[in-house]
Write a structure and sequence with these properties.
mainly alpha
Length: 116
Amino acid sequence: MMPRYWLTMFVLCLMVGLPYASGYAASGDPTKGKDIYGKHCLACHGPQGKGDGPTGKAIVPPAADFTSARSKRKSPTELLKVIEEGRANTAMGAWTRQLSDEEIQHVLAYVLEFRK
């Protein structure tokens, strides 16, 4: 009986999580996010999100490439956390003090556009 329970739980988790893994849409507006990205993110992440902005390749480690397979494996929730909290031992700082929650959602919506 126990294996059947875990199998059922696994299938339910897949069913619930699948929309977030593939077709998730952030609650923000990607058009507004593009403007915010241009002001705050473009220098490192570049115009197409490839991490090739003017300072993106010069920093160690280099800025994230949102078009890479590695980045595409990250869930929107993981990306949101990085935007909000930054990443230790990188140039990616936390944006919660500079941007509102709504602005962060707009940026996330725009960054997710790079996956298409």
